Amino acid sequence: MTNEQAMNLVQGSYIHYGTCVKTIGPRGGVKLSIEKWKVGAIKIWKRTPGVYLVSIHHGLYDHGHIGTGYSDPANFHREEDCNPKIIKKTFRKEGT
Questions:
Q1: Which of 33, 67, 72, 73 could form a disulfide with 1 if both were Cys (CB 3.0 to 4.6 A apart)?
Q2: Whether the predicted pLDDT of 37 surpasses 90
Q3: CA distance 79 to 87
Q4: 84 contacts 18 by C-beta, under 8 angstroms
Q5: In angstroms, rounded to a whole number, what is the distance separating the alpha carbons of residues 62 and 56?
Q6: Taking the domains of the chain in order of start, what are their residue ranges?
Q7: What pLDDT digit, counting tens, does each position of 59-90 carry?
Q8: Across the strands, what pairs with 14?
């Protein structure tokens, strides 16, 4: 996610952290492994337009910030931009 995208986030929306994985099992079952973070308050300063602060929450106890001087927004991506990595699993042949 770029700084422009981070500054245009909407409070209450979700962003994804890291690499999203879509696993397809040997029988066709699909499992999505996505770490979602909820966007909280967004602060943008008027005197310094490049400075922003976005609070994020994950679960009950994990929280943090994205912005100038905090976490790098490059590790996050929006739900609209999510392109999960696809992994196909096959049966193992035992004893042959």
A1: 73
A2: yes
A3: 20
A4: no
A5: 9
A6: 3-18+36-81
A7: 899 999 988 878 778 888 988 888 889 888 88
A8: 38
